[in-house]
Amino acid sequence: MNISLQDAKALIDAAQAAAVRIDKPITVVVVDTGGFVVATERMDGARPLQPSIATAKAYTSAVMQRPSKMLKGWAESQPGFFAQVSTMGHHPIVATEGGMTIKRNGQLLGGLGVSGGTGDEDQEICDAALHALGYESAFAEWNTIKKD
Amino acid sequence: MNISLQDAKALIDAAQAAAVRIDKPITVVVVDTGGFVVATERMDGARPLQPSIATAKAYTSAVMQRPSKMLKGWAESQPGFFAQVSTMGHHPIVATEGGMTIKRNGQLLGGLGVSGGTGDEDQEICDAALHALGYESAFAEWNTIKKD
Amino acid sequence: MNISLQDAKALIDAAQAAAVRIDKPITVVVVDTGGFVVATERMDGARPLQPSIATAKAYTSAVMQRPSKMLKGWAESQPGFFAQVSTMGHHPIVATEGGMTIKRNGQLLGGLGVSGGTGDEDQEICDAALHALGYESAFAEWNTIKKD
Amino acid sequence: MNISLQDAKALIDAAQAAAVRIDKPITVVVVDTGGFVVATERMDGARPLQPSIATAKAYTSAVMQRPSKMLKGWAESQPGFFAQVSTMGHHPIVATEGGMTIKRNGQLLGGLGVSGGTGDEDQEICDAALHALGYESAFAEWNTIKKD
Question: Which PANTHER family match (chains A, B, C, D) (predicted)?
């Protein structure tokens, strides 16, 4: 199950509305569960490298199946190993704010990445967009083996 | 001068309308004159690698400053040299249908790339979108030295 | 809007004049707003790798849209993430002295990079050249959303 | 012995004068005997990727110590092997028109690369510039072991 283009665009609209409130032009990227881009929008005035940065955040959150900031502990405790892992995907695996897994009713749908503000601002924009559209905000560090 | 996000989204809407007419889900990418992504949309059902393919087409058309299909003669007459040139940019330089330079009143604004149909279909979708919005459709093989 | 070759050469001349004053052979690179080289000059006696270094500084300042030294805070606060971002462009994104965004009347025109002295000397040469030709010297950490 | 910046700029001026005669904006690159850039100039209207292409031509002609077009026989007779060799340098080794070794009185001084016209035009511009400034135009396919 992957996020639809319509739902991706709704997330982008909500993120842009949050960016307008802090008066910073941002780039928002939505990827599917495999980390492939569904939609990207770079606001006027937003810097050229933002799509690459936001894609890395969205990709990380989709394929690592938890928000990119949740990787910070790993990146700090095993910097050498994490540096190697960070190049093992199709895009960089980044341990930073501004990337969120998109999930509803326990179902993974993709990843959301925001670039254009401070790390905290990028994160707040992600959170605001996901909250506005009713996606989940809590993620576990580890998956479990499903039994039923 | 670079294309605005609003104008990029209008081009994407027009391209999607053309894709609906041939009943094929596509991905459309718009880049600025430096080849940096402004907007990407992958329609539901469109395959995962389309954004990469469409980005290469849009990038090529922006930085080579002419439609990507106009490079086919070069690619055919000097295949070895063209293969080397094709890796000199930030994205692959591709000699194929489905990439158009975005230009109005002689002013370069960016590049448009479409992936999802045959080469001819991708090209027709580009042409339809640019035509619908009044962009230029004729490009010279060579730039000239401006005098005034 | 990109810097013209004539204006790029005037900047190079001004930078070389500043280099003569400190008696160090330098390399100066000017790129356009997309980060593509407009002009490079390596003075006699200047070392072979300087063009690559100066290109990275100029590229960074053009596509990050602020002087390369303004990235030092980011590079220091998030070294792992910044290392990843530093490879996302067509040339390395460097957080160091000696790279300046070229801007006049609020209009981005390109990037200037100098290599050949200490970081401070390279920066002073950039500043002297930009000042001599009336370009802007103040840059904001963040862009804002333009309204009108 | 390497070409001086002043002599490199004189070659660039001569090449640009030849480009004006055919009304095509070009990029000219001069490298030293080690293949490191001495000077690059991209004329207004010249396309963004020309500096990369012209650098490859100049680099090839400097480090292969013969005009880049003289490699065409090799590239054609051993395409697989040549493709491998072509990536063994610091820049692509290209077998095409528009790159010339810079040599005077039997002394290698560097390489000249031109991009912006057809292969033949790029070559004619190189030839015109080298001729105007009295550099050699004849090169042997093979070096010999100097005896004296």
Answer: PROTEIN GLCG, SLR1406 PROTEIN
- Provide the token pair at D142: 């093979």
Taking all residues of chain D, what is their mean pLDDT, rounded to a whole number? 96
What is the CATH classification number for the domain harbouring B32? 3.30.450.150
Per-10-residue mean pLDDT, chain C, length 148:
97 98 98 98 98 98 98 95 96 98 96 98 98 94 79
Instruction: Give me the residue from C4, C36, C49 closest to D51, CB to CB.
Output: C36
Q: Which residue of B has its CA nearest to D93?
A: B84
For B36, nearest residue in chain C (alpha carbons): C34
Within-domain flag for C6: no
Question: Both tokens of residue D99?
Answer: 């790159």
A45 and C93: CB-CB below 8 Å? no
Judged by phi (left if over 0) then psi (alpha if -120 to 50, else beta), residue C107 lies in beta
Burial of A77 (0-12, 13-18, 19+ CB in 10 A): exposed
Q: Please report whether residue A32 resides in a domain.
A: yes
Ranges assigned E (strand) in A35-76: 37-42
Helix B119-132 × helix B5-22 angle, to 10°? 130
**The total number of structural domains that make up chain D:** 1
Contacts of C85 in chain A (CB under 8 A): 49, 52-53
The position carrying tokens 């809407």 is B13
What span, in angstroms and rounded, lies between the C-alpha atoms of A85 and B14? 41
Confidence of residue B9 (pLDDT cuts 50, 70, 90): very high
For residue C41, give the chain D residue with the closest CA.
D39
Residue D117 placed within a domain: yes
Q: Is residue A40 part of a domain?
A: yes
Q: Do C88 and A49 touch (CB under 8 A)?
A: yes
Q: How far is D105 from chain B (nearest CA, A)?
A: 31
**Per-residue pLDDT, B146:** 75
Amino acid, single-letter form, for residue C20:
V
CB contact under 8 A, D75 and B78: no
Give percent of chain A with pLDDT exceeding 70: 99
DSSP C70: G
DSSP states along D49-91: THHHHHHHHHHHHHHSSS-GGGGHHHHHHSHHHHHHHTTSSSS
**Dihedral of CA C107/C108/C114/C120: which sign?**
positive
The reply to whether residue B44 touches residue A9, judged by beta carbons under 8 angstroms, is no
Give C23's DSSP letter: T
Nearest to A95 among C35, C80, C145 (CB): C80
Q: Which domain range does residue A94 map to?
A: 12-133
pLDDT for D148? 64
**Each residue of D32-80: pLDDT tens digit?**
999 999 999 999 999 999 999 999 999 999 999 999 999 999 999 999 9
